Amino acid sequence: MNTTPAPxxxxxxxxxxxxxxxxxxxxxxDGRASTLAAAIPFVERSRRKPAKKNIAIAAxxxxxxxxxxxxxxxxxxxxxxxxTETALMNGSTDGFDWWLIPSEAIGHTNPCDVPxxxxxxxxxxxxxxxxxxxxxxxxYGKNLLDEVPAGGGTFTYDCSNPQSExxxxxxxxxxxxxxxxxxxxxxxxxLNSPWGALAAMHPTIDHINVIVDGETIATIDTITKTNExxxxxxxxxxxxxxxxxxxxxxxEADAQTPVVSKESTIC
Length: 267
What we know:
Oligomer: single chain
Radius of gyration: 18 Å
Distance between the termini: 46 Å
Shape: globular
Strand order of the largest sheet: 2-3-4-5-6
Number of domains: 1
Structural class: mainly beta
Low-confidence stretches: 1-5, 12-73
Mean pLDDT: 78
Number of helices: 2
Number of strands: 15
């Protein structure tokens, strides 16, 4: 039985500072801030003709990690290595390598050490050994931190009975619910860096179309975690550096009409 006491304010603040996602820009489907199968390659089914804007380059999933580095000691939250072998998808855009990795594999947890259930976009450019993690992440499901418990008040962490604050099953009845996040693949202030984007969606969503200026620039096959073949589906992709608004069409297998279309503004 876990008898860890509930963290005090100082412990909670320090825990959040070191282990929560350092998210440059991440939004949920409703505009609120979001914390954030056998692996298949990142797939683009179609794209527009090359223009001034570059889009993600399809690549097979990375199967080898970066390896342990010669570092004497790491503080909590600092990067030892990027666990690329756990990546669901990966790609390289304009010289920026990225991976879509489950938060659990990175070690991001809530204050009671319960792993976040979602995924994170990890760029090699901004996640170096010895630094703190700098990722964009999404979690799927109702966030209990936003709910009023039956007895009133707000959700509180009870580490004697640890649980996730994200209730994934609560969204399974509505395929139009999803979370979308984005972050620069380079420095946050580098306006020439492409955007890394990621989405968590209903188990029935087979693929998404990425639409910029009314044109589909990519179609991405979604994927589940290896240990959750019938669960939440995820997708990672990139958006050109000078694009501020994009739309995602969410489609079920063999469907011609999207289940839902959602627009995101990123700058």
